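Title: Comparing notes on inverse folding

I've been comparing how different people in this forum approach sequence design from structure. To keep things fair, I'm posting one structure and asking everyone to reply with a full sequence. Here's the target:
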């Protein structure tokens, strides 16, 4: 992997601009936390784990930029920056998790000088980034056994290195199986309206030399009916305590089709994606995005002016359609209420 999704360089947060892929590899440099927040909002960077890392770095950047000498004033501004990051994308659990970790740094270092606190916040953000890469590798190791030699895999949206600090969740499992020498084929849904599958996942897999076939979103049932898919593996943006999974819109439909055709449906997600405070998936907040993403994709009008649009970014797949959830600590299966508690204990 010769690109970095998000990193810290020369006092700036630097992100690969995913809006410009696959035709151009360009980076956005953020000198202020407001720039990081906007990059999360406008999907310069996306994917739940990557959003968490970027938010942590944005908070650290904000702390470094604060020119205040009073601890009370520092805390006020710090809370403002944290709130700004929390408001960017409501569904991704990793965002809240990362912000809370940064807040905990301030609590732990109560009474220390501001310079030391700034250094601690930056160190925490970098630790979150490095841990994310290692967590993804462990997830890949835990999940690769579900991919047999000769498997044909369907995936939806992008859950690869671009959606994380590196290696990937769902694509991390696929990558680990490929590195082990297994022969496989990956079918990638285009993932409208932002086309993350077509633009990002196909780009990633092609760059890694993993055989990839791009298909339109409505083709999943056809592929399954023809026996062309052996398993489905996707990532997640938030998972409730009972194992219900919020992921990119269209995931629920694929899970239903997989169940109908007797095809295993796997989810790969780090523990930071779980929100055990939510009992069921219906409690997960679903982000509604700008209608222009549907009517004017990439600034080209394709629908009548003024037409009404629904554009939820995510849907929720009930746990009964999920074969297993692969994490860095192990694999959870039904009954998820019990197996997830065991992973967190």
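Reply #1:
Here's my take.
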């Amino acid at each position: 992997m010769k690109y970095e999704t998000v990193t810290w360089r020369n006092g700036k947060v630097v992100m690969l601009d995913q809006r410009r892929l696959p035709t151009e590899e360009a980076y956005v440099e953020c000198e202020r936390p407001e720039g990081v927040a906007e990059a999360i909002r406008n999907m310069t960077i996306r994917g739940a784990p990557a959003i968490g890392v970027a938010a942590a770095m944005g908070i650290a950047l904000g702390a470094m930029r604060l020119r205040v000498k009073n601890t009370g004033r520092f805390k006020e501004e710090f809370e403002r920056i944290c709130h700004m990051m929390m408001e960017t994308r409501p569904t991704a659990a990793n965002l809240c998790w990362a912000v809370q970790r940064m807040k905990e740094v301030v609590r732990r270092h109560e009474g220390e000088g501001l310079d030391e606190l700034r250094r601690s916040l930056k160190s925490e953000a970098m630790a979150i980034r490095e841990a994310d890469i290692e967590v993804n590798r462990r997830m890949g190791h835990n999940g690769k056994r579900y991919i047999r030699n000769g498997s044909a895999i369907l995936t939806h949206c992008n859950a690869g290195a671009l959606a994380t600090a590196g290696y990937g969740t769902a694509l991390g499992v696929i990558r680990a199986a490929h590195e082990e020498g297994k022969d496989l084929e990956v079918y990638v849904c285009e993932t409208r309206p932002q086309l993350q599958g077509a633009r990002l996942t196909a780009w990633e897999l092609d760059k890694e030399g993993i055989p990839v076939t791009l298909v339109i979103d409505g083709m999943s049932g056809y592929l399954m009916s023809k026996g062309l898919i052996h398993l489905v593996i996707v990532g997640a943006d938030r998972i409730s305590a009972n194992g219900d999974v919020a992921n990119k819109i269209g995931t629920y439909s694929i899970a239903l089709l997989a169940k109908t055709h007797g095809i295993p449906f796997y989810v790969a997600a780090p523990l930071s994606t779980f929100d055990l405070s939510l009992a069921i998936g219906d409690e997960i907040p679903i982000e509604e995005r700008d209608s222009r993403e549907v009517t004017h994709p990439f600034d080209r009008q394709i629908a009548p002016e003024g037409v009404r649009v629904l554009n939820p970014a995510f849907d929720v797949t009930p746990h009964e359609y999920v074969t297993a959830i692969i994490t860095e600590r192990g694999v959870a299966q039904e009954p998820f209420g019990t197996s997830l508690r065991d992973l967190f204990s």
